[in-house]
């Protein structure tokens, strides 16, 4: 009898503990809803993109390892909408004449934003046509020109420039590869029309999830 009473007490305590640990029905309903699954999927995709973005930043030593070409100044080598892969350089002396580089326009700063959302309009993609080492300040300076600009090399003014050339401090990195047309997606999303499409898609998803569709009555 003592053994049976102990076993009975143990079983009752086990059932009581399981009852307390069991999630309420409302919580189960929320976890099983399509809306929650959609949110979880979105968080996974966001975390994956964020991880890939920072992985590329570390691997390629560049603040902006992926960029969309926003102008026609490098045609026919690069066209608007191409996605370029940018590699940072530890020593600016590694940049050679004829390399395609990405640099900040003198006098501007680019704040950090989420991947593909920052305004990179002040980042320029041009080819190096000349480089000089200035022994007075110990910096490399680069003369640049767009392949489509037949009027001659760029002549830059402002801070971190010297004789129309730009300082290595403005350098983001060197273009090592590119994929045609893929950059049109982030370029479009940053436009008012692109933002409207994104918001409209979100509203459609919410409408489908929360607005009940009346069913036809059956006789």
Textual characterization of the structure:
The chain has two domains: 17-60; 63-182, Umud Fragment, subunit A. The relative contact order is 0.14. The chain has helices at 2-21, 25-32, 34-60, 184-189, 192-210, and strands at 66-68, 83-87, 100-104, 123-134, 139-145, 161-162, 165-167, 171-179. It has an eight-stranded antiparallel β-sheet with strand order 1-2-8-3-4-5-7-6. It is 37% helix and 21% strand. The model has no long low-confidence stretch (mean pLDDT 78). With 219 residues, the protein is of the alpha+beta class. It is elongated and about 85 Å long.
Oligomerization state of this entry? Answer: single chain
Percentage of residues in helical conformation: 25-40%
Bin the strand percentage.
Answer: 15-25%
Tell me the count of domains. Answer: 2
Shape: elongated
Number of helices, counting only DSSP H or I runs of 4 residues or more = 5
Q: Count the beta strands.
A: 8
End-to-end CA span: 61 Å
Given as residue ranges, the uncertain stretches (5+ residues, pLDDT < 50) are none
Name of the CATH architecture of the largest domain: Ribbon
Radius of gyration, in Å, reads 29 Å
How would you state the average pLDDT, rounded? Answer: 78
What's the story with the biggest beta sheet? Answer: 8 strands, antiparallel
The CATH superfamily name of the largest domain is Umud Fragment, subunit A
Question: Strand-and-helix sequence, N→C?
Answer: HHHEEEEEEEEHH
What is the highest CATH level, the class of the largest domain?
A: Mainly Beta
